[in-house]
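[job 0417] fold request received: 5-methyltetrahydropteroyltriglutamate--homocysteine methyltransferase
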Amino acid sequence: MQKQHITTHVIGYPRLGAGRELKWATEKFWRQEISASALQEVGRKLRRRHWQEQQDAGLDFVTVNDFSFYDTTLDTALMFGIVPKRFGASDADRGLSDYFSFARGAEGREPLAMTKWFDTNYHYLVPEIDDDLKFTLHPEKILGELEEAISAGYRAKPTLLGPVSLLSLSRASDPKHGDPLQHLEQLLPLYGELLEQLSAAGAEWIQLEEPVLADDLSAAQHAAIVRTYMKLGQHKGGSRLLLASYYGSVRGKLNTLFTLPIDGVHLDITEQPEDAVTAARYLPDDKILSLGLVQGREIWAAKLAELREIGEEVLEHIDAERLWLASSCSLQHMPHTLEHESELPSPLRPWLAFAKEKLVELRHLSQALAGSADEAVFAANEEIHRRRALTPGVEVGSLRESYQALDRDEHKRRLPFPQRIPRQQQLLQLPEFPTTTIGSFPQTQEVRSQRAAFRRRKLTAEQYRVFVKDQIRNCIRKQEDIGLDVLVHGEFERNDMVEYFAEGLKGVASSQFGWVQSYGTRCVKPPIIWGDIERPKAITVPWISYAQSLTNRPVKGMLTGPITILQWSFVRDDLPREQVAKQIACAIRAEVLDLERAGTAIIQVDEPALREGLPLRQNEQAAYLSWAADAFKISTSAVAPETQIHTHMCYSEFEDIFQTIIDLDADVISIETTRNRLKLLETFRNHGYPNQIGPGIWDIHSPWVPSVESMTSLLTKATGIIPRENLWVNPDCGLKTRQWKESEASLRNLVVAAEQLRACTTLS
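[job 0417] inference complete; emitting structure tokens
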């Protein structure tokens, strides 16, 4: 093969830093420990470091404007003046304090709503469009970062969320004002002006991201894509436009994309590799094809030989100069690097590739397709995958037999809800509007430092156990003093709601530094599911039982559900996800039964990730929802009718999965509703949700303490939507990220609000 060059780039790169430098600096800024200029300097250093990593790996372009201090969707909205009226004038040129108020709220101003980004565990801030909004252009951020990169000597490719996706992901301030997509014609001239400014600033290529292309487009969205890029193709100046889709196949949309006046199309072909050859066969001569060959969401080392074969097939149809290689999507969904991971199980590390290692995979593939492959690298890669399949624990025959032996009768409760609930009420003796929390209480610096000391073996197991028991005792006493009806143990022994359970399971490993951004400064460290799953012993029972021994009030057993453990882990790629989910479900089922045997009367199995696992395309959704519901029911169905099963879901759009929520048959579901002012409750009413529900009346992602009046107002509104005998009172989510002072104050107000509604009932 004649030596040639294959262009490489990534759609985006992790922005927090390998040591989560951005998280720590941002939180210091929030605490007023550093200045805005100091935080800006941290951002500049991280951008420079990440561009250098891309250049050092041999990539042809570095990606610019994928950095954000909180959320790139928010950044894009502000770039076009999308500012709700409650935040004041529509001027988007704001300082960092004002910028963070959109995400965290401010005195008298509710923050923007937050929800899941497509089918990922990333949360974005939902742009809110007033009907009379006048869009204005504020390009300083993207132009400044482009100039920064070019001045430093990098070949920079700015990236930007496209207008159709931006509007599709937005919501109208008043739902009566219709679809935000109706504002497209007002927005397009500003996008055109921005493209011209980027071109004048030296952008050779501009990447416009339209992730909605992987979804089922409505007729309006399809028409909007065509209108948008027919127009923007006239405003690119001397730059060239790369239209990027990701999170799945674009399927029947290729013909439309290839007729647009753009210069290149990026396709995520990890789901449907055959799309690569189809696209190459029909690619117009004036366009380049960017192939998302390397996984941008999964941490498993690529099968380089297979990917090389795909690239070679593509090169049978197009010339090398028209083929680019890339990550399938932004690498922000995975940890930064494996370089510091020294404690992973010995067979596991060679199976993995984090973001920085994905850059190297791109280089090897590019070199191979250009005729200068390092064959030793390819041979070593094949041997790694061969050995992985033979590693003990990857397949455990006895476990698989037990999973398959589950009977369908084990997927449902022994009695229906109307017959269960009187038994539960007789046992629990709870008042009207029972109050509780979602589970976690503040993870203070002391808690984190003691946990770290235990992990570093500076505390013995007994010393750590005594410390955690002290925290639990204090938490129970505070909850009794506040007046909550159903208590929790506080979860002080848990580093994370998923990782904690993963550490108690066989077939699952934890990294040391594999942090991934969930939203803002909130990071998670997803476990790595590499083998068949088994629970060797009880995980939570000792802590829950101890907490219950301290009080006469019921203490909830707190568990993470099988679908959330699945979705918030890096899942093995050699077994269908359905089978992995049911393996996890069997482990949680055993834990549920152990809690019940220990005397726990209420068990909460959280499933906040149920909605985010929903496939983007409708024809794939029913199958997923069926096995996801089965996994939850396997976990919870074996208990006695008197045992009350709770679940919790938050920051998701529930309309598409509502029948599945009913099918879960949890006795009580708690949900996030504060940021949408209980609008979500109307969905529950309209679908006739039959069981009990706890609508969140305190937005725990805002540092502000809600007043009794605001909580009472929300509860009163809730009684007009849901029968009052079905209502619980709780925050939106767990309190792990909050401080004790604000948590106590807010919970006291919550209890008073519930008492006021009970008093109203008594008086009436």
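[job 0417] notes: The CA atoms of residues 700 and 732 lie 6 Å apart. The first strand starts at residue 7 and ends at 9.
[job 0417] exit 0
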